[in-house]
Amino acid sequence: MPKSPQELPSPELTLGEMPFRSKEESWLSFNSRVLQEAANANVPLLERVMFLGICSSNLDEFFRVRVATLKRLTRIGKRFEKLKIPDPNVTARRVNAILQKETERFNRAYAGVMKDLRKAGVRVVTDRELPEPLHDYVREYFLTEVRPRIMPIKLKANARLQGLKDHPMYLAVRLSHKNGKGGKGHALLEIPASELPRFKVLPDHEGDQIVMYLDDIIRFGLPTLFTAMPYDHFESWAIKFTRDSEMEFDDDFTESLYEKVTEGLRARETGNPVRINYDHQMPKSVLKLLVDHLRFGEQDTLFPGARYHNRKDLMKFPRLGGPELRYPPAPPVRPPKLSGGARLFQEIRKADHLLHLPYHSFEPFLDLLREASLDPLVRSIKLTQYRLARRSCVAKAMVAAVKNGKDVTVLVEPRARFDEEANIGWANEFREAGIRVILGVPVLKVHSKLCLITRHENGKDRRYAAIGTGNFNEDTAKLYTDHLLLTAHKGITKDIDSIFDFFQAPYNPPSLKHLVAAPFNLRSQLRRWVEREIKLARAGKPARIRIKINNLSDPETVDLLYLASSHGVRIQIIARSMFSLITELNDYSENIEARSIVGRYLEHSRIFIFDNGGKPEFYISSADFLPRNFDSRFETLCPIYDPALQRQLVDYFELQWQDNVKARKLDTHLTNEYVQPSGGDPVIDCQAMFRDYVRRLSEKAVAKR
Questions:
Q1: Has residue 341 got a pLDDT over 90?
Q2: I need a labelling partner for 278 at 20 to 30 A (CA). Which of 228, 240, 372, 398 fits?
Q3: For this structure, is 447 an active site residue?
Q4: Rounded to an integer, what distance in angstroms lies between the CA atom of residue 343 and that of residue 222?
Q5: How far is it, in rounded angstroms, from Cα 126 to Cα 214?
Q6: Is the separation of the CB atoms in 618 and 546 below 8 Å?
Q7: Per annotation, catalytic residue among 309, 353, 447, 483
């Protein structure tokens, strides 16, 4: 039973003494939830293929970033204790043990999906399984499209291979004679998956749709690659290198960020290997030959795998078969007051609007930018860019606005991980168009999602703003759950104007009265909010904190939540990914419940609700609870003042909390046990039901007009 307030000590906090789960272990638990979806027979079959691809893609990034960081930490000795994190050597051993089990689970799930695809009439065939009538078709495709793009590298004795890239896959080939006589040769070739589809749809055969990996098309055509060499027998095994992708930036800003990022991108291709995946059927002699040639001596980088690597490409698997193999269409809803033809500035001036993506359409924001670019009263547009769509309509709107005579400023974050090169390209394009570009802020990575439009109305300037939990990206807006506030609130928009002043002259912190910003006051303000709930609990009053977040792995915040729980504050957490707090610990976390939802959409929004003695406060944010979000990124928390929008956030959170289809308990051991409906309880799939909720909101709004 929770202790009474009288039994509790004063709310003082000693950092680093509470239990803390490593980021790496909790992240692997998240990826295990993704893998659960791939193995779930209730998920449409082609979506299960997609989840396999997402799981593999996640794991690639995990090695490039988390494992690479873990290896660095193991080399600093006892100094890691100052970071208040678990022993990285212990974490590394646990991670390796988890990875072995997860690899086995992935291979079982993959085999199950391939089996179910065959039952559904979609066959993925190898070079040995290719039906005889299709040989000529594959041979012709190989000779005309594939063979010209392959340049094998002979593995010569004592020769060192250099310059092998991070992303591509390779085939290690052993060449010999069928009769066993004569010597052997070895070669390495890059699979040109960046130039050709990884999956080739072949002509139907015996009523089945036939698909072949590019890898196997190459295996099929190997004899025609080595016609100049005296061999007639060819064996091949896949191998792949994953390199350290963390970019390091010092504090010397005499060198431009452009040069630093460019150097970092080049270094990323040749960074230290953190994983060498190889086909587990590869003979030890061939593996040793490769390792010797590549000068890879550390055994902890070697990971035996299956026949295929880069299975993140499964996200691009051909969408074959009938509609039952996919999620049913779910077109987004457009709020009636923001529909086509509406005068958006007028509607936003009347009331705040909150878009719930992807349930709502992203189009109102694009229309707002379009209207702003044409409106003669609009003087300026300012925007932060972290990740844009590949063919960004947002970028087009910025370019159109400057051509229409508007003063346009875009802060481009050049250090957005894995989007560095794209963002440098956008910065150059914007500058050529005449847009004022702020290329990052020294020391801080700008992660806030802010847009500010200034319009001259009735002899004075009025500001309009968009503040989001996710990127201004029309592609991810179809897949990620996020919230986007459209407001003309004078206090909020003035704060955003101050923030853009800071971006242009980052010498003094912005003066903010409504927004909360990291690294200036996010940590201290969070402490004040939590301590306020603690005081209420100690006074015997109801106290509650509701958090929806992607990652919660900041030691100080974890300790703060333990403290609140020990004083009787009820804490509900919905965390998608990293989660270092350990629930179900007596006295520490008995008042904390935590869940994670993995479903059709990627849960990406950040919401914070503090009950505040019956006068709850609501915030949306760009920030997760990781040390970097508090200390080395520019983040914002934005209050939601409109009671109707507050009600929507409560309904959204509570519906997620009641989910008993896609929700998993984040228990002590992160077993990922599904939340099960109790007897007589309705089945609640929060993502499907919130889509209906948004549709009903729209219908009610239409009925009132």
A1: no
A2: 228
A3: yes
A4: 63
A5: 10
A6: no
A7: 447
